[in-house]
Amino acid sequence: VADPAGFRDQVAVLFSDWCRICELPATNDSVYSHYISQLQQSGLLKGDDITDRFFRILMELSVSHCVLPEQVSAPGSLSLQSAQQLQQVQQLSYFSIDSYAKLVVLIMKFCSVDQGSSKAILLPKILSVTVRVIQKDAEEKKLSFNPRPYFRLFVNWLLDLASLDPVVDSANFQVLTSFANAFHALQPLKVPGWSFAWLELVSHRSFMPKLLMCNSPKGWPFFQRLLVDLFKFMEPYLRNAELGEPVHFLYKGTLRVLLVLLHDFPEFLCDYHFSFCDVIPPSCIQMRNVILSAFPRNMRLPDPSTPNLKIDLLAEISQSPRILSDVDGALKAKQIKAEIDEYLKTRPEGSPFLTELKQRFLLPQSEANLAGTRYNVPLINSLVLYVGMQAIQQLQSKSSSQHAPAQQITHGPPMDIFLVGAAMDIFQSLIKNLDTEGRYLFLNAVANQLRYPNNHTHYFSFVLLYLFAEASQDIIQEQITRVLLERLIVNRPHPWGLLITFIELIKNPRYNFWNRSFTRCAPEIEKLFESVSRSCG
Amino acid sequence: LGIDLTTLGLNLNSSDNLHKTFGSPWSDEPARGEPEYCIPSCYC
Amino acid sequence: DLGAIGDNLGGSAGNSGGMHDQIYNMQMLEAAFYKLPQPKDSERVKSYVPRHPAVTPPSYPQTQAPIIDNPAFWERLGFDPIGTDTLFFAFYYQQNTYQQYLAARELKRQSWRYHKKYNTWFQRHEEPKVTNDEYEKGTYVYFDFHIADDGSQHGWCQRIKTEFTFEYNYLE
User: Fold this and answer.
1) How large is the ipTM?
2) pTM for this entry
3) Yes or no, beta carbons of A197 and C32 under 8 Å apart
C-alpha cells in the first residue's frame, strides 16, 4: 500500500533536520534525546505500520544520498574491467548512512518504554525493514546492485549496538540474535550480490565472538545456522576442483573464518561437525578437514605416530562426543528410522530391509541434477552416524551390565559379537550393494567421524578397518584406502582419528596392506603411499 | 590439494584469541587496533 | 570414478523457495566481486574524547575551534619559537587526534626528528660529526621535560645534547 500523501516529504524534512544535528561539531545528549522524543510524540516510533514506513524511507534516503553521482561515462567507452574498477573506486560518501545509523542507535538508547516503544520491539522491526529494503534493492538492481552502503550501515550498528558485553548485558544477547536473524534472512542464497559483505559482517569481531561467547552455547545455534547458510550457497560451486575467481575468493575468506573458529572456538566446530559435513561437498576435502580437526581446548592429543600408542587405553576414547546437530532428522524425514530401530533390535534373518536400503538412498532424477549426485548424502550421513551411535550405546550398556570393564573396541579381531552384529550387518550390506559412487559416499560418512579421541572416533575407526579386513572385493579395500588417503594428501590440518586409522591400516599385519596389489598399481601411487606413510611416521 | 593455511595471514600458533584482531575474511593483515600512544610517564 | 564425485552435473535448477538458481547466483557473486567492502568502509571517523579535559569557565569556548584541524594553521605556528612549543604540546597532549598528526608533520618539516626509543624530538644543532647507514653522531637540540635535581622546578624546555648517537632504526 502506498505511503500516505506527503509522508515521504515529511520524513525527508525530519531526516535533513537530523543530519544538521549530526553535522554540529559536538552535540550533547540533550539535543539528541529532544529530537527523539519529538519523533515519539509524533507517533513514529510505536512499532506499527507507520514505524515501518518511517524507517524504510529513512533508509532509502540515506542510501540514495550515499552514492555520489558516478563519473558519467558512455557505456561503450569503458572496458568491463575498467568499469568494474570504476565501481570499486566509486567514491562513497557515508555521511548520510552514518547519520541514519546513529539515529537508530540513539533511538535504542533514548526511546522510552512509557511512550510505547522499546529496544526489544524496535530493533527487530528496524532490522526486518532493513532486510526487505536490501532484498528489494538487490532484486531490482541485479548486477548493478551496490552492497557497500548497506555494509556500512551494518558495520555502524555492529560497532555501536552489538559491542556491549552480552554476558553483562543480557538484553544485548537479544541484539545479537536480532542481527543473526537479519543475516540469516540476507543469506547469500537469498541475496547473492551481498555475499562478500555478508561474510565480513557475520565474521566481524564485534559480532561472531560475542555470539559464540555469550551464554555459550546459547548463541551457537544462531551462528551454526549462518555457517550452514554459507556452505549451502557455495556447495554447488565447490564440487568442482577449479573455482572461478569470485568463488575462490569467497572460499579463501571462509577458510580464514574457519581458522579463527578452529583456533578460538574449537568446541563449536566439534559439536556441529555433523551438520557442516552435510553441506560441504565431498570433494572439498581440506575445508572439511579443518572442521574435523577441531578438538576441545582442554584435551591433549597423543602424537599419532608414537610407537605402540595404546589408543584403547586413552581415557577419552570411551567418552561420547557432544553432538549438537540433528542426527536422525533425515532418517525421520525419509521415514526409515523406525525400520532401522526395528532391525537393530531384532536383527531378523534374510530381512529385505537391508537389500532395499540402497534404493532409499537414491534421489529422484530431478533432485539429482541439483544435488550433483544421485545419492541423498545427508541421509547416508545420518544413517551411518545414527546406527553407529546405537551400536556404541548398546555396547556400553552391555559391558556395564556385565560389570565388565568398559568393553574396549580393539583394533584387533572383533572381540564382541554384538559389535559385528546388527550395525555391522547394515554397514557390510551397504558396502557390498552400493555402486562405486554410493560406496564412496558411505565411506565418507564413516570417515567424517574420525576426529579427536572419543568413542565415535574409536568405533568408526574400527568399522573402517573391519570392513577393509572382511572385504570380499579388492575395490572395497581400494576405496577405503582412497577415502583415507585423499584426506591425508591435502595440506594440513589432518584429523587425529584419520591419522591413527591410516597408521593402523598400514602397520598392522592383520590388514596385510602392503601386499594389496593396488598399493603398487603405478609408480606414482607407490611413491604416494610411501610418502604418506613416512609423513605419518 | 588445498592450500597452505599458514599463508592466510592468521597466526595459528598464537596463544591469544585470533578474533580480537580479525580484520576481515579478505585480508591477510590483522585488524589495526587503535594505535596506543602513551605519554612517557616523566611527561605527566 | 572411485573417489570425489565428478564435475558438477551442471544444469541450473528451477527456483526453489525464493532461492535463485546457481547460474543467477554466480552472476550476482561475480558482480559483487567488483564491489567488495573496502577497509575504509569499516573505518570510523576518529572522534577524539579528551581523557583529562581541562575544566574551563563556561565563558570559554567549550568545543575546539574548527581552525585546529586546518593544516595551514599549523604551518603558521612553526614560524616562531613559541609556536614550536605549541607544536610539541599538541603532539604530546592531544594524542590520537588529527592535530597531533598535523603538529608532527610540521615539526618534521622543520627538520625535527622523532626518536622512537626516547619518545623525544631531536634537531641537529650543527652538522653531525659522523654519519653512516646506521646512525649519525653529533650535537642536537632536543625538546624535553626537565625536572631540576632538587625537584624545585620542572617544565618543558629545549636542551643541548653533545656527542649524541641517533640510531636510524629509532627514527620514526
Assistant:
1) 0.86
2) 0.81
3) yes
